[in-house]
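Why should sequence recovery work at all? Because a backbone constrains its sequence more than one might expect. Tight turns favour small or flexible residues, buried strands favour hydrophobic ones, and helices have their own preferences. The token representation captures these environments compactly. In the example below, the structure is given first.
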């Protein structure tokens, strides 16, 4: 049976302390929470994520990864001996962050949850298909940056982690109007 994320929609709330709703500027009075469906579209489209893990001594470790959103779960991978794999073996809590770097436009997302290794071959095949659909020639073409990734998932060279969101945050910026949405699952 495939790993699946939450079956219910999260509660969604606008945090006005960090949104333009408190600042009198054009458009601020109309600021609303960003719906989860919109946040999911951003998760599906994002090409790069930053995964934050905690080392056994408590120091943070942050690194970029590619990831695929599939069946309400965010999947990413790493080599078995890499720092993030060692950190997650010690403590599965992590955050995946994606977005842009513009001050006035864009939408950033932070997904917090517990990373769990995926071992089920059927789920791995679904994840491989999701990666191939999302990243196309980067994975499927012999010239692709990540060519052969599916085989590293199948043979266990890479560990695939599944993160079902526990909490997520969306930070919107539209022409200088800001929103901060919290999603609780």
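From this structural description, the recovered sequence reads:
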């Amino acid at each position: 049976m495939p790993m699946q994320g939450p079956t219910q929609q999260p509660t969604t709330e606008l945090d006005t302390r960090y949104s333009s709703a408190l600042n009198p500027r054009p458009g601020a009075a109309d600021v609303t929470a960003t719906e989860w469906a919109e946040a999911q579209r951003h998760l599906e489209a994002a090409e790069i994520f930053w995964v934050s893990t905690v080392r056994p001594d408590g120091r943070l470790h942050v690194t970029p990864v590619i990831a695929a959103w599939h069946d309400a779960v965010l999947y990413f991978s790493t080599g078995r001996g890499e720092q993030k794999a060692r950190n997650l073996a010690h403590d599965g809590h992590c955050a995946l962050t994606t977005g842009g770097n513009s001050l006035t436009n864009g939408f950033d997302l932070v997904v917090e949850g517990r990373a769990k290794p995926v071992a089920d071959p059927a789920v791995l095949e679904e994840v491989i298909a999701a990666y191939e659909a999302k990243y196309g020639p980067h994975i499927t073409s012999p010239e692709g940056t990540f060519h052969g990734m599916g085989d590293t998932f199948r043979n266990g060279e890479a560990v695939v982690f599944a993160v079902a969101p526990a909490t997520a945050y969306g930070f919107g910026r539209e022409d200088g109007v800001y929103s901060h949405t919290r999603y609780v699952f």
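A few observations help interpret the result. The chain has a mean pLDDT of 92.
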